[in-house]
Amino acid sequence: MIAFISGVAVDRGIDYVVVDNHGIGYQVFCGNPEMVTLNESIIFHTYQHVREDAIILYGFVDKRELDIFRQLITIKGVGPKTGITILSRFSGEDIIRAIDQEDMAFLKKLPGVGPKMASQMMLDLKGKFVASDTPSTKHVAMPLVDEALDALADLGFKKAELNNIKQELSLLNLDSVDEMIKEGLKLLHSRKRGL
């Protein structure tokens, strides 16, 4: 299974982004592709859906959204297309809160979700996630940095290279792992070029 794709976003459509990874263009279906900046580096955490006639990649810039997506598609009647549509219109955190608070009115607003499916969501998913608060204080910075460095190590960067940028990355006061990864890539590439 393909866990993530990293590369340069070279094209996008209504529901997908094409990521150039070493000369191969991967079509990654995602919510809100218009938010992706073309000709910039991107990492998608992916769900690989295999059908008889196709292998489809669904991508998320936030790993937590991928985890929520994986849970959503365990619900009978929610396939990957419905799951990605739901997460393109509503945040995963709002969906988790609605499930945990049994907010039927909110759940029925989700695309393709009626009363029966909303009830099934609450039955199957209540308590499966802890809704997270938006990180806003510096005490969360180091875990974010460490997670970003782990992702960069998975991309093949050496430990010594990563240790060289760790301090600088921790001073940037960024709020998400994805932002940390992007900035980490910029720092690593600028050092390789000797800038």
Automatic annotation (TrEMBL):
The keyword Hydrolase applies. The keyword Mitochondrion does not apply. GO terms for biological process: DNA recombination; DNA repair. It is found in: Cytoplasm. Its main location: cytoplasm. Pfam families: HHH_5, RuvA_C, RuvA_N. Signal peptide: none annotated. Residues 145-195 are annotated as: Domain III. GO terms for cellular component: cytoplasm; Holliday junction helicase complex; Holliday junction resolvase complex. Residues 70-89, 105-124 form the Helix-hairpin-helix DNA-binding motif class domain. Keywords: Cytoplasm, DNA damage, DNA recombination, DNA repair, DNA-binding, Hydrolase. GO terms for molecular function: ATP binding; four-way junction DNA binding; four-way junction helicase activity; hydrolase activity. SUPFAM superfamilies: DNA helicase RuvA subunit, C-terminal domain (SSF46929), Nucleic acid-binding proteins (SSF50249), RuvA domain 2-like (SSF47781). InterPro entries: DNA_helicase_Holl-junc_RuvA_I, Hlx-hairpin-Hlx_DNA-bd_motif, NA-bd_OB-fold, RuvA, RuvA_2-like, RuvA_C, RuvA_C_sf. Has three domains with a flexible linker between the domains II and III and assumes an 'L' shape. Domain III is highly mobile and contacts RuvB. Homotetramer. Forms an RuvA(8)-RuvB(12)-Holliday junction (HJ) complex. HJ DNA is sandwiched between 2 RuvA tetramers; dsDNA enters through RuvA and exits via RuvB. An RuvB hexamer assembles on each DNA strand where it exits the tetramer. Each RuvB hexamer is contacted by two RuvA subunits (via domain III) on 2 adjacent RuvB subunits; this complex drives branch migration. In the full resolvosome a probable DNA-RuvA(4)-RuvB(12)-RuvC(2) complex forms which resolves the HJ. The RuvA-RuvB-RuvC complex processes Holliday junction (HJ) DNA during genetic recombination and DNA repair, while the RuvA-RuvB complex plays an important role in the rescue of blocked DNA replication forks via replication fork reversal (RFR). RuvA specifically binds to HJ cruciform DNA, conferring on it an open structure. The RuvB hexamer acts as an ATP-dependent pump, pulling dsDNA into and through the RuvAB complex. HJ branch migration allows RuvC to scan DNA until it finds its consensus sequence, where it cleaves and resolves the cruciform DNA. Belongs to the RuvA family. This is Holliday junction branch migration complex subunit RuvA. It comes from Erysipelothrix piscisicarius. The gene is ruvA.
